[in-house]
Amino acid sequence: MGLVNLICFLLIGALAGWIAGQLTKGRGFGLAGNIIVGVIGALLGGFLFSIIGLAAYGLIAQILMAVIGALVLLFILSFVKR
């Protein structure tokens, strides 16, 4: 993975984390929190999409996949937190 790919991955993760934060509790988690939630969400989303046989091609699809993964991650964390 090159430097440009890593930067794009982190930017997609930050955006996905911010969107997931907006959808779940109405505010983001800060830059570092958004990146962490988004990157883990992107990995989780990629895993879930591969299980059901889908692939994300293009920037919008990758962001959507990362947001779905981040939402699943936050949903799981809300149960663990209780």
How would you explain this protein's 3D organization?
The model has no long low-confidence stretch (mean pLDDT 87). It is built from three helices and no strands. It is globular and about 35 Å long. The protein is an all-alpha fold. It has one domain.
Briefly characterize the structure:
This protein is mostly helical. 82% of the residues lie in helices and 0% in strands.
- If you average the pLDDT, what whole number results? 87
Total number of beta strands: 0
Task: Tell me roughly what share of residues is in helical segments.
Answer: over 70%
Could you tell me the radius of gyration in angstroms?
12 Å
Please provide the ordered H/E string of secondary-structure elements.
HHH
What is the number of helical segments per DSSP (H or I, 4+ residues)? 3
